[in-house]
Specification:
527 residues; alpha+beta; 6-stranded antiparallel sheet; 40% helix; 19 helices
Length: 527
């Protein structure tokens, strides 16, 4: 299917292309806004010599203070100051521009899905939200520096070609396995573009045409909770951040809905909404038989607290969805052809776009970052130290293609050096940092961008100060999820007493032990 030719005839579907996307460009692209890939569904404004282009369902916020112009693509809210209007938050950050520590602290207070930056003279500086839930890429193409939510948008505008390495990687049979489809390190489908990595500040100087970046977090050792009192104080502080975030969501959106399952992450999100169960809605969906247990758990929780709950029954056959092939092609195009989704996943996104009526989905992603994910995944009490081989083995399985494994090692070796992982304190474990900046940033950001096809999405866990608090919890409690259970109890003890907790059906101990054997073998193989 030639997507541009198809959409030229289907004006009713054109708005779905790169929905809720955005593009920051040094050069004007306004002459292209009427045709493919914008189709007149994008807005454009010029600020401080830069062109800010946004899909009609996306948001761009600008604030100028002195010689600096601040921008925020997406949304944010501050559970410490209880501000939710982006322009006011940009002004609050700008007030601290002369104090580097306070300036960074105010940025770290933000929850949301966004790219934040500022322009001063010939320089543009930018960073992504704490976990990279807003997919963001940057690059220089035809002497034009750009930052965008979708690499394929630049591919369409400039006729870019996917690299041979990425073509080989996505054709590898194990590529869709282990957390699904995503590219390693900061790679994009194109040589000209790179992913914006969380906890890194980028700066492009147009005067000397030099791009620089530096790690700003984490750079100081984290003191672990050593006493029951310290642990309790930490749990309460973290839970209060979640509770404040839930309250701010109600101020920002009219009809927020929590994506609810029986899992610990969304359970805790639901607990954070305690006291507002008539204002929040919840929903779940059935796109595969394995989801039934979560649907039943979510329904039981919502009924108990008299919260409106919607169950979306996703059709089991493509023929039941009108224009499935075209809409599936749009989704694949939006993801830059690096995310090969199962058909039930495609049907889910398409069905929700047609039937989901709330103005924002409240997801519980990012929570996994502080739950010692890889320790549980491999049933291990400890993980190896920092190395390219560790990152490669957390990324994918390469038992059958050692040549590709060695090239991935080189990619991660460069990535580790470039983004200064050697500066990360020992209290932040390398495996946790991979889950945070690599898995969340690459896999998570790509998925969230795809899901914005049907709704705006917010995540109350996506707050750097919250993550830091929970990383100070002893590893044993993070492995057992005790910290989540204690937050949930503090937020809503009645929910805890319902004793509803659905475990991931795929994370059986036998499966984890098998995966650990493969992981261990890959770590010791010298070739």
């Amino acid at each position: 299917m030639n997507l541009s030719e198809t959409l030229n005839k289907r004006t009713d579907l054109q708005h779905l292309l790169f929905r809720r996307g955005w593009l920051i460009s040094r050069k004007s692209l306004d002459d292209k806004i009427g045709g493919f890939p914008f189709y007149g569904h994008w807005n454009s404004r010029k600020e401080a010599g830069w062109h800010f282009m946004t899909h009609e369902d996306a948001h761009c916020h600008i604030h100028t203070e002195g010689k600096r112009t601040y921008f925020l693509m997406g949304h944010c809210y501050n559970p410490f100051t209880m501000r939710w209007e982006e322009e006011k938050q940009l002004a609050h950050i700008a007030e601290a521009a002369g104090n580097e520590a306070e300036f960074q602290s105010r940025i770290d207070e933000l929850t949301g899905v966004f790219v934040l930056g500022w322009i001063e003279g010939n320089t543009i500086s930018f960073l992504v939200d704490p976990s990279g839930m807003q997919s963001a890429y940057y690059g220089k193409i035809n002497d034009n520096f750009v930052i965008t939510s979708h690499t394929q948008l630049l591919g369409d505008l400039y006729g870019l070609e996917m690299t041979d390495f990425v073509k080989e990687l996505i054709a590898y049979k194990w590529y869709p396995r282990v957390m699904g489809c995503y590219l390693p390190a900061d790679l994009s489908p194109y040589e000209e573009m790179r992913r914006v990595v969380p906890n890194i500040l980028y700066k492009q100087d147009l005067g000397n045409r030099r791009l620089s970046h530096r790690r700003f977090y984490p750079l100081r050792d984290l003191k672990e909770c050593a006493t029951p009192k310290e642990y309790d104080t930490t749990i309460r502080a973290a839970a209060d951040i979640l509770r404040n975030g839930a309250e701010l969501i109600l101020r920002k959106w009219n009809t927020p809905a929590i994506s609810l399952t029986g899992g610990i992450d969304s359970n805790t999100t639901f607990a954070a909404a305690n006291g507002h169960y008539k204002e929040f809605e919840t929903f779940s969906y059935m796109s595969a038989p394995k989801e039934l247990i979560d649907v039943e758990a979510a329904k039981k929780i919502a009924e108990h607290f008299k919260t409106k709950h919607t169950i979306y029954q996703i059709p089991s056959d493509n023929s039941e969805i009108q224009d499935f092939d075209i809409k599936a092609a749009i989704l694949r195009h939006n993801s830059g052809y690096v995310a090969m989704r199962k058909e039930n996943e495609l049907r889910k996104r398409i069905w929700l776009e047609e039937h989901y009526t709330n103005d924002v989905e409240v997801k519980s992603w990012v929570s996994e970052n502080i739950r010692a994910y890889w320790h549980k995944h491999f049933v291990r009490k400890s993980m190896p130290g920092l190395s390219p081989k560790l990152f490669r083995n957390l990324y994918k399985i390469f038992l059958e293609n050692r040549s590709l494994a060695h090239r991935i090692d080189k990619v991660f070796d460069d990535y580790i050096r470039t983004f200064e992982y050697g500066k990360v304190p020992a209290s932040f474990l390398p495996a946790d940092m991979f889950r945070w900046e690599m898995t969340s940033g690459s896999w998570g950001g790509l998925n969230i961008s795809e899901m914005m096809y049907y709704s705006d999405i917010t995540i109350i866990y996506n707050n750097r100060k919250l993550l830091e608090l929970l990383f100070s919890v002893p590893l044993s409690k993070r492995i057992s999820d005790q910290h989540h259970l204690d937050m949930k109890k503090y937020l809503n003890e009645e929910l805890v007493q319902m004793n509803i907790l659905v475990q991931n059906a795929e994370q059986t101990e036998k499966r984890a032990q098998m995966l650990n054997c493969i992981f261990t073998m890959n770590m010791v193989l010298p070739f």
